[in-house]
Amino acid sequence: MVVEHTSTPIAPSPWSVSMRDVSVRYASGVVALKNVSLDIEPGEMVSVVGLSGSGKSSLIRTINGLVPLTSGSLHVGGFQLETARAGELRRLRGHIGMIFQGFNLAKRTSVLNNVLVGRLAHTTTLRTLLGAYRASDRQIAFEALERVGILPKVWDRASSLSGGQQQRVAIARALCQQPRLVLADEPVASLDPPTAHEVMGDLRRINQELGITVITNLHLIDLARRYGTRIIGLRAGEVVFDGAVEAATDEVFAEIYGRSVASEDALGL
Amino acid sequence: MTALTVPPRRRDWRRSTAMIVVGAVVIGAFWSVDVAWGRLGELPAQIIRYLWLMFSDPDWSKLPEALAQTWKSVAMAWVGTVLGIIVSFPLAFLAARGFSPAPVRWGLRLLFAVIRAVPEIIIAIVILSVTGLTPLTGALALAIGSVGTLGKWGYEAIEGVDPGPIEATRASGGTTAQILRWGVWPSATPDFISFWLYRFEINVRSSAVLGLIGVGESVTCSPRTLSFGSGRPSECSSSWWSS
């Protein structure tokens, strides 16, 4: 099948994120975020670093409304999250691509069906339930797969792909949303080092070529420095560092991690 | 070699109590049924004798009718299964945790449990007062019975699927229906299909039992034959489907 390439950029205009005194407390009583204030500009490539349990996952899940904020205010694109209703949250999420550590693909269906999940918020429910997507939506899915170099696998079952290929499908699923913001939660923690660099490279290209704002959670220092232009350090739910990559010295990381930096804190390739 | 410090094993008293109670019930059950264990040795000979009685001298003239009855039995099971699937499919999703309000969920689970507690033959007796002794009665009884088991298996399968794709479909802005379609259904499909086929098997077996009360016989059999007290369940069980 020959798919025609369109030259229109996938992201119409990237989004900014503005957090003011955001706190998140779970029903279990655990406080995941404490008075976090951040401004992320459109088109930035941000690495969020911290140990596990520092609140990285909660931070990005608050941005797309998967985790409700307990107090404070959060402005993403044109949406005010602390007052958004369910329907608004769905529309917001429709514009935000999300990438997970475990890929989160439906393994028993095709790569194409997985990528088309990115069109759910942009298609009528009836069409999605029947799997009768419009040709234009399929075209967007094909282009997203082409961008991460995995279009030849479009008809394969997701479970038949390797970890790196599955994460690329997941990135294509996010791109298929034509997102204005991409959130990635430890996207390479399940991958071997060379594949990790390829996937991080894909995220950087999304940011540089398409101009999409990208926020990536990482715990490895070298990846955070190499692929981000700005680093936000979280420790026990609080922002303890926020600055350019150049300013994030080993001493800064020691402060973020609450201990001296060791060789295990780098991927080292 | 240094001495190992093995942490003390924690005992869960609820679990221990449950094990003791279940054990006591099992032992009590064995005690009360009064099995003549001494006759266990005769069992193989008895099995061979019964197989001999069943198959040694077939009346081949009955074969066409027997095949026809079998086909009708399978047909009734098929219709019952398909109807059961159509009804149970949406209900299973409504009964699964995370996709509908708790009162709906518990109401449906209670309904499934009640249906499972009632044998199809009783369901048939209840509904034949409305639908009469027709094949439809049998199929409906099987359909209702199927909803009880398919509903339970269904919601358990839905609750057991990998949560990853569910999170991904939610994160991309999917509605509940879309999450079920693309986050749950691809993972649950094989389970659902195997439950449906298994329930069809059960329904084929049950439809033969329903034949004993004459469900499916429209003209020659009156409800009087349903008097179980006589010791003869049905006088017309030889041709229990309308012909």
TrEMBL record, chain A:
Gene3D superfamilies associated with the record: P-loop containing nucleotide triphosphate hydrolases (3.40.50.300)
Keywords from the named record: ATP-binding, Cell membrane, Membrane, Nucleotide-binding, Translocase, Transport
ABC transporter domain mapped to chain residues: 17-261
GO cellular component assignments: membrane
A Pfam short name: ABC_tran
An example Gene Ontology molecular-function term: ATP binding
InterPro entries named in the record: AAA+_ATPase, ABC_transporter-like_ATP-bd, ABC_transporter-like_CS, ABC_transpr_PhnC, MetN_ABC_transporter-like, P-loop_NTPase
Protein name per its UniProtKB record: Phosphonate ABC transporter ATP-binding protein
Gene source species: Cryobacterium frigoriphilum
